[in-house]
Amino acid sequence: MIDEGKVVKGDPLLIVQYKDTKLSFENEHKLQKFLLGPAKYHRVDLPVKMPPQEDPVSLYALQGAEESTTFLE
């Protein structure tokens, strides 16, 4: 959202088409906020890149790597 100054991944079930643009929203609260004043958000310059995904790293998977060191032996 423009209010936060960043791009976030939207929910594929929360999609709205406004004029010539399809928009996906992170949650229903943000969708409702958009619907109250959509012109404010139309054709706004946002960052070009999406932020990196926040995938959790499995420590168990890292332990099996060749360059890993086990401290609890």
Biggest beta sheet summary = 2 strands, antiparallel
Helicity, as a percent range: 10-25%
Write down the Rg.
19 Å
* Mean pLDDT rating: 76
Q: What is the element string, with H for helices and E for strands?
A: EEHH
Structure description:
It contains two helices and two strands, in the order ββαα. It is an alpha+beta fold and 73 residues long. The radius of gyration is 19 Å and the shape is elongated. It has a domain at 15-63. It has helices at residues 28-36, 59-63, and strands at 15-18, 21-24. The longest helix has 9 residues, at 28-36. The protein has a two-stranded antiparallel sheet.
Task: Describe what is shown at a glance.
This protein is α+β, with helices and mostly antiparallel strands and 73 residues long. Helix content is 19%, strand content 11%. The chain has a domain at 15-63.
State the main characteristics:
73 residues; 2 strands; alpha+beta; elongated; 2 helices; two-stranded antiparallel sheet
Break the fold down into its secondary structure elements and pairings.
Elements: E1 15-18, E2 21-24, H1 28-36, H2 59-63
Antiparallel strand pairs: 1-2
